[in-house]
Q: What sequence folds into this?
């Protein structure tokens, strides 16, 4: 079953984080992601896609929290639509 | 026998409403200091238990866990573990949890509960959670965690009595041994399962935060709104402050007249009128503008908009090698570079952080406002160049922009040379929007006003008096061609310096003002006021506002060069000291001072000679 990269997730559709490629970014960034509750298995929803023509950064809802992250990091997070 | 007052720490995730709870519990009597050995701000206050026994309450920096991401979080960990040298371990904890964000906040709560200290959980912002359609079972949360839970709404002062009562009971329980902290993954799973069990009902409701974000984070409307907001902010600094500044000026003039009428002519009268009132008074008049600026910044922070501004700015900042994280410290630097530089601790990437520290002094801080306002008021005509847009406000806006553009160019350069490193990153929590509480904003403003007045009463007061003494002695012989300020000790030093500053259009009085302005930028204004007062001699001329006097003595080219100088000059010893502390050494502050002075000299020179070539 193919997953969708977080940065490609259509807006306002509920999904689940399947895998995160932790090697794609420095440890400090991974630690912060976990602090903000972003890890495998959590529910996620894309809310806003960037500013002007850059379409970067993006805002997503994780649990009950909104967090902002760069598209490059989002690309390492693979999601799956909730059943 | 005196028993030590119990120490209770407020601890919780960022955005859990911790500061609001702290303000509600302690009121306006707060003590602000630093934690021993670090520059992290320590806020503490006293609360009284039911029988009147006092308890010291300390507001710890917000943290996500006991494994810190930043210096602030490290302080929180060290305090609760009793590992911070020179700081005693709290006797109990109040753990603040956002009722609307249990999934995330309970993980840190579980870590804290495991420490074995007596705790109370404040289930905060229950009203917002209800608004979002959540119904919680606090009794269940209490039994799952094994500690008492009290529902609170800090901003409405709801649940505070129950909280203090429970705390009182908990303080009587001795701490137990810490239990081993579960592995992170297990901790997350437990937090999620507890959250699930505690949420009784969840109804979908219209979420204001989402609706607002659709507008404020809109790809095109978002940046427009942000820039509009910033423009209004800087226009207001001028427009709203006019009346209160007038009152302060009238008050100082009345005081000055009163002293002139009662004291006999002589040393004391001269010191008070020409030294103290002319000097300190010329700085105090800027209090209204500084407060207006802080008012905007405090409101932006309290509403939750600040992180949205960081979101909007991130990609633009990325083009000079920075990130949206740098936007918040840089915006704070518009008020003062010191909290700005301290706020860089939230930037995880060290090279990013260093660059932000080095460019923070380029943001136009409030200490520069007195300098700008006096010069603009004296040399730029107060006329409208469009509906609601004044020429003076526009010049001020241009000066702010010059600082920003200068900072961006400097960042680009620094990121490619001395602060070369990996690409910047951006990762931030965006809290729900909240209506700011007037009480909290007023408290914040009062704390800022107090810091400013204390500066005026100490650094500025002392340097003004010292300068007045240096300017007044030795007395110029009667019949001499020289003025008093030229003949004085200070004048002789300044004429030496003037050799360096003349090529950029600065006369000896300006050179003179630049020396004490190293202590704080706004001293330049009081120094000029004192220097011109000492020469004026008679009372009528002393009473003349500094701006009017300058307008008669400086060319427009000199005035513009003076403004350009202050866009870049790193004239603030406190900022240099903070940069030293935050970068752990002298290397970077020395680098910062050198490059900024070089920029200031070049910018003032270019401005002066360009203006001269236009015949100004």
A:
């Amino acid at each position: 079953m193919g997953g969708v990269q977080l940065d490609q997730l259509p807006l306002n559709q509920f999904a689940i984080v399947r895998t995160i490629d932790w090697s794609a970014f420095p440890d400090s960034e991974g630690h912060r992601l976990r602090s903000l509750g972003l890890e495998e298995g959590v529910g996620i929803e894309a809310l806003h896609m960037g500013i002007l023509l850059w379409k970067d950064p993006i805002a997503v809802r994780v649990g009950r929290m909104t967090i902002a992250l760069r598209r490059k990091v989002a690309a390492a997070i693979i999601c799956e639509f909730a059943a | 026998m005196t028993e030590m007052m119990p120490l209770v720490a407020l601890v919780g995730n960022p955005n859990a409403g911790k500061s609001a709870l702290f303000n509600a519990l302690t009121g306006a009597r707060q003590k602000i200091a630093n934690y021993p050995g670090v520059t992290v701000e320590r806020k503490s206050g006293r609360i009284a238990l039911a029988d009147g026994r006092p308890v010291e309450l300390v507001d710890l920096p917000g943290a996500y866990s006991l494994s810190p991401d930043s210096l602030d979080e490290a302080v929180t960990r060290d305090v609760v573990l009793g590992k911070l040298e020179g700081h005693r371990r709290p006797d109990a904890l109040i753990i603040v949890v956002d009722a609307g964000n249990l999934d995330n906040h309970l993980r840190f709560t579980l870590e804290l509960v495991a420490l074995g200290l007596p705790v109370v959980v404040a289930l905060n912002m229950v009203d917002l959670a209800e608004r979002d359609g959540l119904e919680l079972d606090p009794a269940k949360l209490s039994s799952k965690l094994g500690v008492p839970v009290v529902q609170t709404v800090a901003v409405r002062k709801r649940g505070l009595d129950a909280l203090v009562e429970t705390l009182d009971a908990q303080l009587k329980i001795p701490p137990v041994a810490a239990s081993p902290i579960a592995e992170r993954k297990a901790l997350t799973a437990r937090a999620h399962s507890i959250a699930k069990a505690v949420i009784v009902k969840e109804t979908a409701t219209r979420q204001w935060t989402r609706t607002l974000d659709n507008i404020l984070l809109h790809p095109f409307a978002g940046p427009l709104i942000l820039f509009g907001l910033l423009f209004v902010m800087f226009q207001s600094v001028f427009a709203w402050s006019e009346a209160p500044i007038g009152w302060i000026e009238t008050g100082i003039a009345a005081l000055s007249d009163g002293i002139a009428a009662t004291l006999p002519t002589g040393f004391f009268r001269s010191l008070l009128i020409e030294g103290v009132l002319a000097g300190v008074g010329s700085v105090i008049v800027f209090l209204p503008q500084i407060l207006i600026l802080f008012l905007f910044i405090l409101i932006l922070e309290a509403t939750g908009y600040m992180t949205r501004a960081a979101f909007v700015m991130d990609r633009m900042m990325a083009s000079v090698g920075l990130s949206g994280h740098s936007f918040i410290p840089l915006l704070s630097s518009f008020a003062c570079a010191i909290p700005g530089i301290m706020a860089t601790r939230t930037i995880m990437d060290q090279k990013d952080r260093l660059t932000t520290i080095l460019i923070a002094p380029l943001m136009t801080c409030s200490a520069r406002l007195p300098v700008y306002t006096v010069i603009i008021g004296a040399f730029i005509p107060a006329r409208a160049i469009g509906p609601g847009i004044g020429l003076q406000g526009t010049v001020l806006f241009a000066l702010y922009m010059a600082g920003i553009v200068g900072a961006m160019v400097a960042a680009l350069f620094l990121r490619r040379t001395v602060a070369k490193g990996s690409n910047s990153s951006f990762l931030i929590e965006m809290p729900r929007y909240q209506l700011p509480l007037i009480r909290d904003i007023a408290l914040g403003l009062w704390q800022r006003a107090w810091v400013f007045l204390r500066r005026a009463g100490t650094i500025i007061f002392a340097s003004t008096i010292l300068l007045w003494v240096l300017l007044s002695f030795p007395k110029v012989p009667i019949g001499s061609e020289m003025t008093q300020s030229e003949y004085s000790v200070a004048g002789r030093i300044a004429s030496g310096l003037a050799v360096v500053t003349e090529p950029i259009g600065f006369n000896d009085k300006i050179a003179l003002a630049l020396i004490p302005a190293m202590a704080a930028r706004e001293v330049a204004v009081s120094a000029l006021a004192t220097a011109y007062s000492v020469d004026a001699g008679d009372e009528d001329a002393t009473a003349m506002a500094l701006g009017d006097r300058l307008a008669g003595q400086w060319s427009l080219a000199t005035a513009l060069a003076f403004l350009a100088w202050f866009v870049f000059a790193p004239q603030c010893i406190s900022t240099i000291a903070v940069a030293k502390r935050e970068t752990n050494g002298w290397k970077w502050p020395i680098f910062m001072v050198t490059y900024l002075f070089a920029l200031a000299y070049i910018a003032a020179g270019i401005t002066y000679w360009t203006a001269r070539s236009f015949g100004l």
Remarks:
- Strands of chain A lie at 4-5, 15-20, 43-49, 58-62, 65-69, 77-81.
- DSSP finds two helices and six strands in chain A.
